[in-house]
Amino acid sequence: MLTDIIRSKTLGAIQNIYQIQLSEKDLQINLTKPEFEGDYTVVLFSLVKSLKLSPDQLGNTIGTYLIDKESGLFESYNIIKGFLNLVIKSDFLLEMLQQHFQDPCFGKAPMNGKKIMVEYSSPNTNKPLHLGHLRNNFLGRSIAEILKANGYDVVKTCIVNDRGVHICKSMIAWKRYANGATPQSSNIKGDHFVGDYYVKFNDAYKAEVDALIQQGMNKTEAEKEAPIMKETQQMLIDWEDGKPEVMELWRTMNQWVYDGFDVTYKIIGSDFEKTYYESNTYLLGKDTIELGLKNNVFYKKPDGSVWIDLTQDGLDEKLVLRSDGTSVYITQDIGLAQLKYNEFKIDQSIYVVGDEQNYHLKVLQLICKKLGLPYADGIHHLSYGMVELPTGKMKSREGTVVDADDLIDEMVSIAATHTQELGKVKDFSDTELKELYSTIGIGALKFFLLRVDPKKKMIFNPEESIDFHGFTGPFIQYTHARIKSVLRKNEINNVSNNIQEPLHKMEKELLVHCELFGQTLLQAGQSHDPSTLSMYLFQLAQMFNSFYAAFSISNAESEEKKQLRLKISSLVATILKSGMQLLGINVPEKM
C-alpha cells in the first residue's frame, strides 16, 4: 500500500539524515487536502520536539532527500504550516492501473495463517427475524468477508437459542389455540406462524393477570399465579426431564422456525459454516467451573451456589452456578467458548451482539482470563447499537416489531417505484426487472444499516435508503452500472500505454483514491467497522461521477486518453463491485 511505502521511506530518510530511529506510530501520513498541491501529507509536528528543528526546516530537508533518493516515486514537494505535501509520480499510479484495472483481488491481502470465528445472528426460535436481527446479520457477515479480504481464515457461526421459557410460551399457546394448525395448513411461513403464538401467549397472559388483579390479587402475585404461566413453567420442567410428547412438540415447532429462517437467510445472503444450538450447549461449562473452584478462582456460598468476585476489577460478584447446580448463561458461554476453541483452534472469536450485552461479554472474557483459558485474549465483542424506526422502539411481545421479511418486501417495492420513475428500464424483461428490484431494494437496506458506525444507535428510514443521489447503496450501484455501460460500448486495449500527456488532477485523484482500497480494507478489518468501507465506496462513486461529468471517455481528445480513462473506469468498477460484495451487496451490470 502506498501509504506504507511513503511512511517507510520517510522513516528511512529521518534515520539517514538525523541518525534517529522512529516507529511507524510516530509518523502520521494523510491524503493532502484538496485545497493544497500534493497527494500525500506527512505531519511534521510530532517530530519537532524530538529533533529540535522547526517544521519548515524538517520539511525542506526530508522533502529534498526524498526527491533526490526516491526519484522513482516522488515528483515534488511543498510545505504549508508544518505539513510536508508530497506529489507522487504519475508513473507509479499508471503502473498500478495497468496491473490491476481488471483485477478482482485488487486491495486484498494474501492468507496470513490466522483463523478467526465470527458468531452472528443468534435468533430465538419463538419468533421470526426482525430489523434488529438484520443489522446483526449484515454486520456479522460483512466483517467476516472483510477479514477474509485481509488474509484471515474465517469461520462463520451462529448460536440458536432454541430452549427456555420463551420457547415454551409459544408451545403452550399453540396447544391452547391452534386446533392442530400448521404453517402448511395456514399457508404461513413457519417462523411467522410460531411467532404469532408467542404474541397470543402474551395477550392471554396479560388478560389472565388483569382478571386476577380484578379478583383482589396484587400484580406480582397475579403474574405468578396466572394459569398460562404456570402451564409454561411446568412445560419447561417437562422439557428438561425429556418428556416425550413435550420433546416431540418442541422439535416440530423449532423445525417450522428453522424452515422459515432458511428462507430469510437465503434472501439476505447470510450463511454459516457451523450452527450451535443452546439445547446442546446449555450444560457445558460446569467442568470448567469445578476446576476453577479447586484453583480458588470461584468460591461457594453457604447455600451451595458458586460465585466469582470481580469487584477488584471494577465489576461485581457474579453467579456462575445456582445452588441447585444448574448453570446460568455465563457458565454456558464459557463452555461454548471452550468448545469452539477445541473444534477450530481459533486465534480470535468475535461475538456480534447488541450493546445491551456489553457487561456480559466483559465478564465472560475476564472470567476466562482468570481461568487461564487459551482463548481468553481472543474474545472480542463487536458491540452495536439498536435500530429504531422514526416511530420509535420495537416490542416483540406486543407484536410491534418490524418483521425482516415484511421490511424486505417493502424495500423491493420501494425500489421498483423509484426505478420506474427513472424510466431507464423499458428494455428489461419481467425476470430481469424482478431481479433488479430485489438487488436494489436489499442492497439499499444493507448499505443503510452498514453505513453507520456499529457502536451508534440508528434510525432506519426505508424511503431515505433508496435515494439514487444520496449516501446510499443504489447510488453506488447506479455508478457501477453507468461504468459498465461505458465499457460495453468501448473496447479496452490491454497493451500498456506510454502516457505522454500529464494526468489531469481529477484523473490522478481517482487513481490515488483507488490505491487506498487496500488500506481501507485493513482499517475496516482492524476496527471491525464496515462503515469505513461504506464511506470509501461512496466517496469513490462521487469522485467518478464528478470525473464523468467533466471529461468525455468515448470521445476523449486522443486514443491514448480514451484508453487511460477506460482503464480508470474499469478499475473503479472493479473496486465498487469488490467492495460492495464484501458488504454483502450485489451490483447490477445495468439499471
Give a brief outline of the structure.
The chain is an alpha/beta fold and 591 residues long. Among the domains are: 87 residues, Gyrase A, domain 2 (2-Layer Sandwich), CATH 3.30.1360; 106 residues, no CATH class; 41 residues, no CATH class; 179 residues, Isoleucyl-tRNA Synthetase, Domain 1 (Orthogonal Bundle).
What descriptive keywords fit this protein?
14 strands, four-stranded antiparallel sheet, single chain, 11% strand, 591 residues, Gyrase A, domain 2, alpha/beta, 23 helices
Q: CATH superfamily of the domain at 404-582, called what?
A: Isoleucyl-tRNA Synthetase, Domain 1
What is the overall number of helices?
23
Q: Which spans of ≥5 residues are poorly predicted at pLDDT below 50? A: 394-399
Major sheet size, sense and barrel closure: 5 strands, parallel
The CATH topology of the domain at 404-582 = Isoleucyl-tRNA Synthetase, Domain 1
Q: What is the alpha-carbon Rg in Å?
A: 29 Å
- What is the level 1 CATH name of the domain at 404-582? Mainly Alpha
Looking across the biggest beta sheet, what order are the strands in? 7-6-5-11-12
Report the oligomer.
single chain
The assigned CATH architecture of the domain at 404-582 is Orthogonal Bundle
Q: Give me the secondary-structure category.
A: alpha/beta
Mean pLDDT figure: 93
Q: What features would you describe in this structure?
A:
This protein has 591 residues and is an alpha/beta fold. Among the domains are: 87 residues, Gyrase A, domain 2, CATH 3.30.1360; 106 residues, no CATH class; 41 residues, no CATH class; 179 residues, Isoleucyl-tRNA Synthetase, Domain 1, CATH 1.10.730. The protein contains 23 helices and 14 strands. The strands form four sheets. It has a five-stranded parallel sheet with strand order 7-6-5-11-12, with helices on both faces. Strands 1-2-4-3 form a four-stranded antiparallel sheet. Helix 20 runs parallel beside helix 23 and helix 21 packs antiparallel against helix 22. About 1% of the residues have low confidence.
